[in-house]
Amino acid sequence: MNFVTHLECANCGQRFEADRPYNLCTSCQRPLWVRYDLNALKQQFARKDLFGRPPTLWRYLELLPIREPEKIVSLAETITPILQTKRLAAWFGLNQLYVKDESRLPTGSFKARGMAMAISMANQFGTKKVAVPTAGNAGGAMAAYAAAAGMEAYVFMPDDAPVINMKECYLAGAKTFLVNGLIADCGRLVGEGTKVKGWFNLSTLKEPYRIEGKKTMGLELAEQFDWELPDVILYPTGGGTGLIGMWKAFQELERLGWLKSPKRPKMFACQSDGCAPIVEAFNRGARFAQPFENPATMASGLRVPSTVGDFMVLDAVRESGGAALAASEADIPKWMRLAASREGISLCPESAICLGVLELLLQRGTLKPNDRIVIFNTGAAQKYPGAVKENLRRIDLTERTDWESI
Ligand SMILES: Cc1ncc(COP(=O)(O)O)c(C=O)c1O
Ligand SMILES: [Zn+2]
Asked: Which of 50, 86, 162, 238 lies 20 to 30 Å (CA to CA) from residue 170?
């Protein structure tokens, strides 16, 4: 059963027919929401119907836009575990600090959720060629799903994106281009290419179904917490689809009456002080952000100086009673090492920023020791070998081992 009724511009409200490929709103060039008949869904489908379904994001099919399930392109998007930290929580003086570990997904990041959905929808529409500008991980995910679907893939990424992302795109057979600029420059190239070459543009938020894939993070979280949402979510925010998608999930679940309590989590959009356009807009009280000048962060997914969904992130954060905060870029390696050495959890640099924001929130007294706090580990730390400069001792086999100093 499919319950999509229409799509709707998040800014001007213009309606669009369901079951078509779309990019931005044709009137105001802002992103589109996919809307469902939640009353009908509520009548015909209940929480308990999820029981026994496969542990992948497709278990939420009735809340997803796909109409022809046989067109789904899947690499087994597993339910990602929620790890309750002990030694890390204690370090912060907290009792309930959780990490939802998205690095377990195909291609090692949460981008797989959005791309599984967008490529499945493109497959349903008969699309043959897809293109994307990327900070790295979205390109890797798109390349893999396009390969699985037998589509031609074109990826444009900054030439200083993580090397692993370049290699994964190349291995997956995507035509991969390194651009001496930022993700916005890559976006411009994809925009031109779609006109000249007839590709379908899968750019984040410029394609409405990626949000629906990211939404499954929120659906999963709710189910894993037995339909009682946590008090606080810390989310590393670049383009913002992850945070926006999760907030949409909570709204839909509430309308379906699936949540035990109407209390929704406070959402904190976490950015690096090396690129913090959403934080800057939040502090100004603005609904739209200004492009961030000279963005510089090793958390490549956060190096997004402007996003077409800025107002959607800021609306969600404000409605939730949360905030947008920037933590110190220089502290990223410190937080990565803290999480790995105290808890065995390898955080990507983007998510390491969330620990910096957590510290700021605790210093301000915004959070309480008993709050249920969830941090999203959006990607695999192993994709960023340059993030940490280790200083390891060498052993020279031609010399006697000095056991005293070991
Ligand atoms: C690992 C990682 N975390 C976070 C983000 C930011 O995600 P979003 O654009 O949904 O805000 C990205 C985006 O590239 C990413 O790769
Ligand atoms: Zn519009």
From this structure: 238
- Asked if 214 and 241 count as a contact pair (C-beta separation under 8 A), the reply is yes
Query: What does the pLDDT average to over 308-320?
Result: 98
Q: State if residue 135 touches ligand 1 by the CB under 6 angstroms criterion.
A: yes
204 CB under 6 A from ligand 1? yes
For the record, the structure tokens of 64 come out as 């997803």
CATH class held by domain 82-106+209-383:
alpha beta
pLDDT in tens, 1-46: 899 999 999 999 999 999 999 999 999 999 999 999 999 999 999 9
Q: Is there an atom of ligand 1 within 6 Å of 378 CB?
A: yes
Pocket of ligand 1 contains residue 237 by CB under 6 Å: yes
Centre a 10 Å sphere on the Cβ of residue 68 and count the other Cβ atoms it contains: 13
Q: Which long-range contacts (CB under 8 A, 24 or more apart) does 355-363 make?
A: 355/327, 356/270, 356/327, 356/328, 356/331, 356/332, 357/234, 357/268, 357/270, 357/325, 357/326, 357/327, 358/92, 358/97, 358/234, 359/92, 359/327, 360/325, 360/327, 361/268, 361/325, 362/92, 362/93, 362/94
Ligand 1 contact via 309 beta carbon (within 6 Å):
no
Which atom in ligand 1 lies closest to the alpha carbon of residue 313? 11
225 CA to middle of ligand 1, Å?
23
Q: How far apart are CA 189 and CA 98, in angstroms?
A: 39
Q: How far is the CA of 406 from the centre of ligand 1 (A)?
A: 40
Q: Determine the Cα–Cα distance for residues 349 and 294; give it in Å rounded to an integer.
A: 19
- Report the nearest-CA residue for atom 9 of ligand 1: 239
